[in-house]
Each structure stands twice: as structure tokens, then as C-alpha cells.
Amino acid sequence: MLDKLQLRKSAIAKLKKIKENEKRAIEQKLKHYLTTSAAWENATTIGITVSQGFEWNTKPLIEEAWEQGKIVCVPKCEPKEKLLTFYQLKSYDQLEIVYYNLLEPKPKETKKVDKNDIDLLVVPGLVFAKNGIRIGFGGGYYDRYLTNFLNQTISLASIHQLVDSLPFESFDIPVNQLVTENGII
């Protein structure tokens, strides 16, 4: 079985090869299935990243949540501790560009959101097994955050990102559901 680094590289290469029109079509289906899911409909507060580059575009999801009156919170990485802290986002003006060109909340302009107040956490990843095991970007931030996270977790994953099984370790925490362009797993 391939190791995580090889799987990561392969997944990124595959995602970057998806043509723009196919990517937009997949994103529309991902948005439809996510925003009509029970997990979304029952959530008051949604944790989600602000996507970049080849990632699935999360801005339409953030905007849909705002339109529905939901609280949106986005993560800020604490690189020294390798931890995430989520802050409520009311406007894209509350974001700043940080290392690796990531868009993160400005803590002085946003309110910290407690982990237990996030009803639905949209967890990013690169490769997914149907049992919810995922390989992310390699920092372990989400696995640490998901420790003792009791609410719903979901990931956006094209069928291009699905595999039968993945190597996993004791600290890898699966997501509850996967949203694909073909529906929810």
C-alpha cells in the first residue's frame, strides 16, 4: 500500500488536472448534496475552511450559510502548537493572508467559537476511504481538533478522491459522512 506522502502527492496532482468546467460542475453537486443534508439543515454553527487553489471552493457554502442565518466559523492555525482555533466569520474582510497563502480570520476582528458550539464541521482532505478515514495535508491539525469533538463531521470529496482503504494510525479520526458528486456516503 502506498504511504501517506505518496497518496497526498498523487491526490494533489489528480485534483489539479480536473478541468475548470468539470470542477465547477462537481462543486455545484457537492454544494447541493451538502446544503440539503440533515447535518447541514440541523446545524446552527458550521465550521469550514476558506478554500484555496485546487481545493473545492467553499465560498459558495459560506455564503449559503450566511444567507440561511447560520453562524460560520473558520480556523486559524497555531503552527507552534499545531492546533486550530475557530473564529466566527461575518465578512471576508475579516480574513488575512498568512503562511502558505492561507486565508485565516483576524483574531482581533472576530469572536472565538468554542469547539462544542460547532454543530457541523466540514473537514478538508485529499484522499478518503468510504469508512471516513482521510488523508489531509499532513499537519495533523484536524486529527488533533477532532479529538473529543462530539458533533457532526463531513468532508467534500469527489469520486476522484475515493479509495477502497487507506493506511491509518491510532490518532487518525474518521469523518461521519462524505459528500460526493453522487450523493452522501
Please describe the structure with a list of short key phrases separated by commas or semicolons.
185 residues, alpha/beta, eight-stranded mixed β-sheet, three-stranded mixed β-sheet, 13 strands, 25% strand, globular
Which stretches are low in confidence, meaning pLDDT under 50 for 5 or more residues running? none
DSSP strand tally = 13
Indicate the proportion of strand residues.
15-25%
Structural class determined from secondary elements: alpha/beta
Tally the helices: what do you get?
A: 5
**Within the largest sheet, what's the order of strands?**
6-3-2-1-7-10-12-13
What string, H for helix and E for strand, traces the elements in order?
HHHEHEEEEEEEEHEEEE
Mean pLDDT: 88
Helix content: 25-40%
Radius of gyration, in Å, reads: 15 Å
Let me know the largest β-sheet. 8 strands, mixed
Described by the principal axes of the CA atoms, the overall outline is globular
List strands and helices in order, with pairings.
Blueprint: H1 4-17, H2 20-35, H3 38-41, E1 45-47, H4 59-67, E2 71-78, E3 83-88, E4 95-97, E5 103-105, E6 112-113, E7 120-122, E8 127-129, E9 134-135, H5 141-146, E10 152-156, E11 162-163, E12 177-180, E13 183-184
Parallel strand pairs: 1-2, 1-7, 7-10, 8-11, 10-12
Antiparallel strand pairs: 2-3, 3-6, 4-5, 8-9, 12-13
Quick overview:
The chain has five helices and 13 strands. The protein has 185 residues and is α/β, with parallel strands linked by helices.
